[in-house]
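input
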Amino acid sequence: MAAKKPAAKKPAAKKPAAKKPAAKKPAAKKPAAKKPAAKKPAAKKPAAKKPAAKKAAPKKPAVKRKPNAAFMKPMTISSVLAAVIGSAPMPRTEVTKKLWDYIKKNKLQDAINRRMINADEKLKAVFGGKKVVSMFEMTKLVSSHLK
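output
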């Protein structure tokens, strides 16, 4: 038990020692105040870098984005699909646009579920005999008619 009492006294002795440096810290705060002042110019340097990054960003939009040549390549259209959109070779993007024009012109889009297309006789041949096709499945089915 005698060993425990001196151990208890040592932390008690450290607490007043901790208070003394705390009293000295206000004197140390004055130089610390000078150090953040030195850091402020360093903070301005990253701020200077940010406008430089903003200047770099406008340069990127100035370069025009080139379209992918694979999408713009004219494709040969099958005779079944030609009955719907025409027989002239055209890119996949134009084929899809013409198909949608045909669908909207003939009101073949389902009234309740707009994702579904109700095929007429011409489109049924393009869609492989399916009467109702989703708009996502449509592009997959049409791709088999392009070479």
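quick obs: The mean pLDDT is 76.
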